[in-house]
Write a structure and sequence with these properties.
Layout (H helix, E strand, L loop, with lengths): L1 H5 L4 H8 L9 H10 L5 H12 L5 H10 L4 H26 L7 H13 L4 H9 L8
Length: 140
């Protein structure tokens, strides 16, 4: 219960955290089923919370990867991706503004900015759109 009181966890994530404490004869899956039945454990809530907390700092690719790492079902990830894509350009602009704030002066600086945004999980299409709006050509 302490794990769930701190934040939402996916079933897979909570299973991994509780597994070392399971003693012989105990059924961890039955406990997790009971938590889900009482609506104390929800993969959908865990996915929503993660998406909301990461949206301002990371791109769709990175967030989807983190959801997969936490064991969120593909159908929940597929539901979240369109919403993420709607705001991805704005999020990329905000991340770029916080980190750099000025247009790249040469190809080396542009490459640095592109790599940074890629590491945050933004697609090249979104990255080049951000840079294009600054007046930076794609082909330097």
């Amino acid at each position: 219960m302490r794990y769930l009181a701190r934040r939402e966890h996916s079933r897979v994530e909570l299973h991994g955290k509780l597994l070392p404490y399971v003693q012989e004869g105990e059924d961890l899956n039955a406990v997790l089923d009971e938590l889900e039945r009482k609506n104390w454990l929800s993969d959908a809530r865990a996915a929503t919370l993660l998406v909301d907390s990461k949206r301002g700092r990371f791109g769709t690719q990175r967030i989807a990867h983190e959801l997969r790492q936490k064991g969120i079902a593909e159908n929940l990830i597929a539901d979240a991706i369109p919403k993420l894509k709607e705001t991805e350009l704005d999020a990329a602009r905000e991340v770029w503004q916080r980190k750099f704030g000025t247009a790249p002066q040469d190809a080396k600086e542009k490459a640095k900015q592109v790599r940074f945004l890629q590491s945050r999980g933004f697609s090249l299409e979104v990255i080049f759109s951000v840079l294009r709006n600054l007046g930076v050509a794609e082909e330097d």
